[in-house]
Each structure stands twice: as structure tokens, then as C-alpha cells.
Write a structure and sequence with these properties.
The protein is built from 8 helices and 11 strands. The chain is α/β, with parallel strands linked by helices. Helix 1 packs across helix 3 and helix 5 runs parallel beside helix 7.
Length: about 240
Amino acid sequence: MKGETGQRGKFKRILIKLSGEAFQQPGDGEPLDTGIIRAIAGQLRDVQQLGVQMAIVVGGGNIYRGQEGAQCGIDRTTGDYMGMLATVINALALQSALEQAQLHTRVMTSIAMPAVAEPFIRRRAIRHLEKGRIVIFGAGTGNPFFTTDSAAALRASEIGADLLIKGTKVDGIYNADPLKVPTARRYKRISYSDAIRRQLRVMDTAAFSLCQENNIPIIVLNFFKKGEMVRALQGEPVGTLVHV
């Protein structure tokens, strides 16, 4: 059941967007940190215990970014496909950690690779969610020139999610980078149109627009603050709510 527009409260089905950087220790050269991935699995287990249906879109920036590859002479299209493959590595790593936590999962990809994952089929994804499985979407949208934020908004729209959670390392959307500007102010609520107009780069314009068109509220929060997602889903005013 959709939550009322702009309201925090009960949600039946959610999609969580996790960046690839969430899978690595800051300052460490290793792209995957098993301790961090286990901690992520623990957070997601706590969310599922609320009885919510949960899908996840993972980024791949800890392994490879298409835009960075372009600076090294790799054409953008090829680089973006390489980045999509990186998200599949993260999806499989997360699946392993979740299953070690005794949670049932499915990885679905936009690029067919049947040896390791199911192809994304909307009706099948929804059926997995209805059966209580956590569905992890990899390989972005399957097309170059689209970010994994856009993929998250697209998949949230396709599965009929009531809410999109963007998990970051800061506790919401600020009017400036809080790591660089100590006086930066956090928005408790902001409209989609204001987020786009102010060019707040926590998500790209396409993602904000798609959520606006499909009336999917977004909560941006600090994923690494223990219990933050649970509190958000219970209606507490954590992070930043993006709505109409």
C-alpha cells in the first residue's frame, strides 16, 4: 500500500540504493571489505524483520566507473558496460553475505548472464518479493549513459515500490558538502522539483524526475548509522525526505 505522498509511515515494498563505495573501507585500496558487507547484511536483515518486501540496487564505483575509464582512453559506452559488470560482482558479494545471514535472495541482472544470475523479468521479480525473497538488481539499466541512481528509480517504478531509500555515508541532503562546509544545513524535507532546481547531486536529475512522475518518495539517510533504516521505516524523521 502506497504511503501518503510526503508522509513517513508504513510501507509494504521498498527499494534500497547502495553505492559501490559502501562495500569498501575508506582509504583502503581493496574494493570489497568482507566485514563491511557482513554489517550491511545485518542492517538489511533488521529491515526485513519489519515484514517489508525489499529490493536492492547496487552500484559498482568501488571497482570501476565508466566516466573514469573515459579519462584513460576507454570509450564511454565500453566503460559503462564495464561498470555494469562491476555492479554484478557487488550484487553477488552481497547475496553471499545475506545468505550467510539465513536470508533468501535472488540476483537479477539487466545483462543476461544465466550462469550467475537470473535475467531481470518484472513479473518474476515481483513474485520473488511476494515470496519474501530479497531481490538484488545488478548491471544497472543494461544501457550505457545511465547511472545506477537512474536504475534504482526505474526498478522502483517497475516493481511498484512505495519508497526508495538512498543509503549514503551522510545523514541526508545538505545545501553544501558537509564534509567541506561545517555550516552546511541539512534539509529535513525537500520537493523533487527543488532538489532538481538546486542541482543537489545526491541523485541525478533523471532519478528524481522518474520518482516524481511515479509518486515514489525518497529518503536519503546514513546507511552506516545502526538502525537508521528501521527508524525511517517506522516513521521517525531521520535523513531527508524528498517528496512532492
